[in-house]
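Page 37, top half.
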Amino acid sequence: MKAFLYGIVELIAKIHNHLMQMNNEYEYNFSDKELHFLVIGILGMAFVFVVYPVFKWLAKRDHVMVIAWIYVFTLIIVITFAIEIGQKVTNTGNMDFADIVFGIVGFIVMFFAFSIVRGVYHGILNFIRKKREREE
């Protein structure tokens, strides 16, 4: 996971350098804030065009729990990074990548346990429903 995140950071740095080089070569003279406005705006819209059809497809197939998991997983990643960055800035703890990994794994393990309990619950309900249908 650590290598994956470092790879993402390196990719973002390369893209950033390329955009800054293009900004200078073509003499657009966009400020850093204007570039963030454009890039994040375009990136966000690209995500909308990808995520919306996927979520719509999942919702039609009654997979709302998958949508909720994706949303919560994204929030967990943001929150764990924010906590670690906050610890570094405020000197209230050590900024440690392992803390981020353990936090995310904690969510995954607890969600897995929840999924098992939920699956058993829905299995029992389906069993009872089918048994009633056979009796009628």
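Page 37, bottom half:
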Amino acid sequence: MKAAEWKDYSVIATGDGYKLERWADVVLLRPDPQVIWKPSMDMNGYKGLAAKYVRSETGGGKWLIKGKMPQEWTVGYKDLKFKIKPMGFKHTGLFPEQAVNWDLMTELIKGAGREINVLNLFAYTGGATVACAKAGAKVCHVDAAKGMVERAGENVRLSNVGDGKVRYIIDDCKKFVEREIRRGRKYDAIIMDPPSYGRGPNGEMWKLENELYSFVELCSKVLSDNPLFVLINSYTTGLQPQVLKNILQLTVAKDRGGKIDAYEVGLKTEQDGVILPCGNSGIWINGK
């Protein structure tokens, strides 16, 4: 599935491990490990290029300013707005390919005919949080990084989401879910975008291949009696859509039935029309 309805974002071209992107009126050149083909144009010489992220041989990297480069700016997707701010490790604070999932979740929430309580785990800067809250859901936004949770709050305010729609939690996601189980709190939908590797605020270690199955199994215990959906996103190389589908089938769908879909998420490039792969998603939707 490809995010094809953006107006404030596009992938102009790709090649030699980089992607040339337009974020509103700012053009950036960022590394992408999936791009193993040759470019069909000189991306470094592109007119209007604001900055290029260059990796260091010793790890990390830095932004090389090439032109007019604001510290931060805003992009819009339909009725959603997000702050863009280039930061360390090539990130900008938003994954535009996730628009396909924002649209899907919006449709499900609006079609539910009731208020939906959403738990968004590893929620980063809140792309999914904003989409779900704007669609009318109440969202519990959980991430271990204080700075990312603060950015999520900014995005929620930019999109004029109503007061009280989002609850912000800075915590290790697994420990938070365990406490929610003990408290007996339930959610109608769960979103998770777990990292390949990570550490919680107290040094908790996370490796996706070792943790994902048991984590989804744990999260299924906070689903309400009539849940709406469970969505898993993964950017881990080698973790195929079928793996996500199998995990959902063996956990969430085991005693609930419903429909499971899993797919690769991508973005179409303007220059060549090739699809840039951007990770995988799996979703369980209740069949009731």
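Margin note: The chain has six helices and 16 strands.
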